[in-house]
Known about the structure:
By secondary structure, the protein is α+β, with helices and mostly antiparallel strands. The chain has a domain at about 10-130: Gcn5-related N-acetyltransferase (GNAT) (Aminopeptidase, 3-Layer(aba) Sandwich). The protein contains four helices and eight strands; from the N terminus they run E-E-H-H-E-E-E-H-E-H-E-E. The chain has helices at about 25-35, 45-65, 110-125, 140-150, and strands at about 10, 15-20, 70-75, 80-85, 95-100, 130-135, 150-155, 170. Strands 1-2-3-4-5 form a five-stranded antiparallel beta sheet, covered by helices on one side. The mean pLDDT is about 95.
Amino acid sequence: MTPHLADTPVLETPRLTLRAPRIDDYPAWEAFYRSDRARFVGGPGDLAAAWRAFAHMVGMWALRGAGPFVFADRATDAAIGNAGPWFPMDWPEPELGWLVWSEEAEGRGYASEAAEAARAFAYETLGWSAAVSYIDPDNARSIALAERLGCVVDANAPLPDHAGQPPLVYRHPAPEALR
Length: 179
C-alpha cells in the first residue's frame, strides 16, 4: 500500500503540478530544511525538525482539509517547492505561503505560478474571503513576490505568536478584486 492523501486536489499550471506532499518529496524537502535557505521558516534544522515540519505540511491536509501543495515540474514530477493554504490553530488569519526548495529553481517564476494557483484554490474552492502572507522582514525575495501578487503591507493586522522578529503581514487582494 502506498500512503496518499486521497482527497487532495491536483492543480495544473502551464509548467507545474500542485499536488499532495508525498514521501518521495521528502529528500528534497529535507535538503532545503537543513540548509540556510530555510532560515525564514524555522530552519535550518536537524533531521527530526525537518521531519516534523514536513509532517506538519501533510497534517494540515489531514486535519484542516487544506494545506500546502507540493509544486512539481509537470514534465518530470520533480518537487520544486511548496505553496498554498496554511492555517495553524494559533494563526489569527488564513495564510498563503510559498517556498522554493532549491537555489537552482529560484528566479524562474515557479513560486509566483504556484502561489497564484494556490490563491485561486483558496478563494474559489475553500471559500476564503481574505488571505495574508506572513513574511520575515529580511526575506527580500518573498516580499518582492508578495508585491508582484498585488499584496500590500497591513500594519494593523493581528500577528501570529512568533518567537523572534515579528513578520510583516502582506494582505492579498480580495477575491472580487482578482476577477
